[in-house]
Amino acid sequence: MPDVIAYGGDWNPEQWPEETWEQDVALMREAGVNRVSVGIFSWSLLEPVEGVFDFGWFDRVMDLLAGNGIGANLATPTASPPPWFATAHPEALPVDADGRRLHHGSRQGFCPSSPIYREKALRIAEQVALRYRDHPALVMWHVHNEYGCHNARCHCDTSAAAFRTWLRARYGTLDALNDAWGTAFWSQRYSDWAQILPPRATPSFTNPGQQLDFRRFSSDALVELYTAERDLLRRLTPGVPATTNLMAGAHWDMDCRAFAAEVDVISTDHYLIGARPEPHIDLAFAADYARSLGGGRPWLLMEHSTGAVNWQQPRNLAKTPGELRRNSLSHLARGADGIMFFQWRQSRAGAEKWHSAMLPHAGTDTKIWREVVALGAELAGLAGVAGSTVRADVALLVDHSSVWAQDHPAQPTSELDPVEEAKRWHAALWRAGVTCDVAHPEDDLTGYRLVVVPQLYLVSDAGAANVEDFARRGGVVVVGPYSGIVDEHDRVRLGGYPGAWRDLLGVTVEEFFPLAGPIRLASGTTAGVWSEQARATTAKVLDTYEGGEPAWTRNQYGDGTAHYLTTRLDDAALAEVLATACREARVEPPARSVPGVEVVRRSHADGRSFLFAINHTDADAPVTTATGETVTVPAGDAVVIPG
Fold first, then answer.
1. Given pLDDT bands bounded at 50, 70 and 90, which one contains residue 2?
2. Residue 238 CB-half CA count within 13 A
3. Of the residues 47, 146, 323, 378, which is catalytic?
4. Which of 363, 385, 407 is the last residue of a domain?
5. Would 193 be classed as within a structural domain?
6. Among 108, 284, 532, 637, which one is least packed by beta carbons within 10 Å?
7. Domain hosting residue 109, numbered range
8. Per-residue CA distances from 601 to 111, 286, 582 (Å)
């Protein structure tokens, strides 16, 4: 990415009369916009009739951008097939688990396994690439848009056939598949590949292994669609980077890690959820996850909002004064080299007309516009941040397969949510000023001092051994309850829980005891939701239930240590456990401040650095740097301190 902070948003000029376009570009220049995403939902205008293409209007859009020094993230418009596609190819429309075929009228109306969809998508992508491969506005390819946001899984016969092909490649034989899925239970043993279907609606629970593998297959199908378009673009436009906008930390129906291995630049979208009491911490989790997907390299925030969104929430909250800036600088602090929005001009009609934009319905005499202009100027002044990275001493482990496996309804409790637990542990570190990466259990853990495992129900043998090896070599590990329980096929690890890590943790669990309400531990700490009947084998017991069974243990393992929690501690107690682990691992925040102030450091290889201090409170707050300098950050404000 260039040595400048990319700034802008989705521009959809096709929604407006052409006389508006010149005004748009002039206002972009006023706001400091240097990058826009274009063409994302333009398929029906670029190919109004099947096989008939109209690029004249889009030529003028691209020329207008180039003439004003604004780069284009040029989209392949394949996320929203036009009406003629659904009419001509109804068999390519998605089917849900109840057998209902979904119809045209929104977006992403296609089956990801449909060969005719892939054929038509590659054709329009090729036409766009051939037309604009030498255009001076082209900076990056924006492939598709938010893969799987609305059609992550299709249960049609085409998908069933593709699923069987995927399973043959994965298992080789029916015997291996039957063993992995445990099909001896409920008389489910398969004697022919043709008998296997997607997990459609059934009288009772579907097979857990079948459900898990269908989630994996469905994610892989989306990745294949991306790589097919990307490979075409690489052939026609070598040297132009390609990406697609993930929804890291928010959308769990596709494996972001699998996509990350295929994109040239990590790109993601993030939107605040109004129901969260501290949505800026959820934002930090998503930003840390995006950075981690790229191995710490700078990434691109392709979309976030200037104000309210338009989703099906009870209340779509507008952003308060200064919140737009704080959100943007938080993404920047956590490794983004581009801050972009959906969208440039707020739509007058359509399903997203109440979604905020850089240029709102009310025009330029507005809070949003003034903040957009001010942010553009500030980001231009922070160009020196571009290319710098964030170093984290802590890795927080998550795995989409584990989330998918635990999503099966036949669980001991419905109140243990692995995603929410991951975010809760991340929030405890955030409040302590500690930046962490969001890693996979099989990732290289070298360089970290502390690894935390909030809730990893499923872990492979390789992932389990990787965490053990980290501790053996001197690292500190903290494992939360209901972790290490099953293997990669969702088969229970026998001999006592947590089967994958009994030796690491020095604990054996005999039975799970979900809780109906809160309980008190011997220390006075409050816990809830979950408990386990455990006994320490080699671990030291640090806290117990009232009956004396271990609730928090610490085990020496090789040159390192491993903590285990057999219950879900309240936020304050969890923070204390993680603080203890941070002290053991010699993990320190980049600066000291008061609760509610976010501190993150970005650094260049040559030693230049930038300390971001973002005050999310309504009171002025002191921030003391590692050198002893104290800076006051006004309420709701942010400062960037070069170092």
1. low
2. 1
3. 146
4. 385
5. no
6. 637
7. 6-156+208-385
8. 43, 17, 18
